[in-house]
Design brief:
30% of the residues lie in helices and 26% in strands. It is an alpha/beta fold. The strands form two sheets. Strands 1-2-3-4-5-6-7 form a seven-stranded mixed β-sheet, with no helix packed on it. A six-stranded mixed β-sheet has the order 8-9-10-11-12-13, covered by helices on one side. The protein is elongated. The structure holds zinc ion. The site of zinc ion has 5 residues, from loops.
């Protein structure tokens, strides 16, 4: 009974957020809108309905790599997409971080191998094999003729942040260390640390990157990394200067807000307190 009431309240909250979101600017709509883009025959980006997802498949139908598994209906759409790639696939899942909108679909892939930066109850999948990628470590995953590199770039949006680099496609999937053209989500109790976050961007410099798939927001080019870093560096420089902050507020006026969660004001408040 209590469970039913809790689910009812959760449903109401989701409907409310959905309603607010419809009026909250173009970049934020893809939190709830699902789009699928094929970048080549074996590589698809599934934007929205939770965090963004990258699916790299083997043309022989033996293995598949899924970066983040969305939540609710988005997770089910992802499952259908993967099922269409072949039966008896070896499924490798990367959870860039434990948040529910990136890990909600884990349980739809029993027997998968899950690469994660931290063991967390948000990563439920009893039959999964867990590979823990520690800070500074990199783990290769072979998918057909491709190799994906899964690296833990340390503390940023959460305590551990996994990114995935595909050298052949020069593509980087960043998880929530990049909210592209959206004010980032900052949660002190879940590990957000701005200094370490800025440093995480620096660790990406050695890779040739053409395409960036952020945790939220549209597919972007490599400038998305510099932009995300500059966001924090510039705001930090302006923290004690109201005029500078006003200029920055204008500079980032077209960035999306996640209703009740992220905004320019929220970023300034977080950085002043931490
Ligand atoms: Zn997140």
């Amino acid at each position: 009974m209590i469970k039913k009431i809790l689910f009812g309240i959760l449903g109401l909250i989701i409907v409310l957020i959905l309603y607010i979101t419809i009026t909250a600017g173009p970049d934020i709509k893809n939190f709830f809108t699902y789009t699928s883009t094929d970048l080549d025959d074996n590589l698809t980006v599934l934007l929205g309905y939770g965090g963004n997802t990258v699916v790299l498949s083997d043309p022989d139908g033996k293995e598949v790599l899924i970066v983040d598994t969305k939540v609710f209906g988005g997770a089910k759409k992802l499952k259908s997409h993967v099922e269409a790639l072949g039966t008896n696939l070896d499924v490798f899942i990367v959870n860039t971080h434990p948040h529910f909108d990136h890990t909600g679909g884990n349980k739809l892939f029993p027997g998968a191998t899950i690469l994660t930066g931290e063991k967390d109850e948000m990563i439920p999948n009893e039959s999964a094999k867990i590979i823990l990628v520690k800070q500074g470590e990199e783990y290769p995953v072979v998918i057909g003729a491709d190799t994906a590199f899964v690296r833990n770039v340390g503390r940023a949006h959460t305590y551990n942040s996994l990114v995935v680099y595909l050298p052949k496609q020069q593509l980087l999937a960043t998880g929530d260390i990049i909210f592209h053209h959206i004010h980032p989500a900052l949660f002190r109790e879940e590990g957000t640390d701005i200094d370490s976050w800025i440093n995480a961007f620096n660790t990406l410099a050695e890779w040739q990157i053409k395409t960036v798939v952020p945790g939220h927001g549209k597919i972007a080019d490599k400038n998305a990394i510099g932009d995300a870093k500059e966001y924090f560096v510039s705001i930090r420089k302006g923290l004690d200067n109201p005029q500078k902050l006003e200029e920055l507020k204008q500079r980032y006026a077209d960035y999306g807000n996640v209703p009740l969660a992220t905004s320019f004001k929220n970023t300034v408040k977080f950085m002043k307190e931490n």
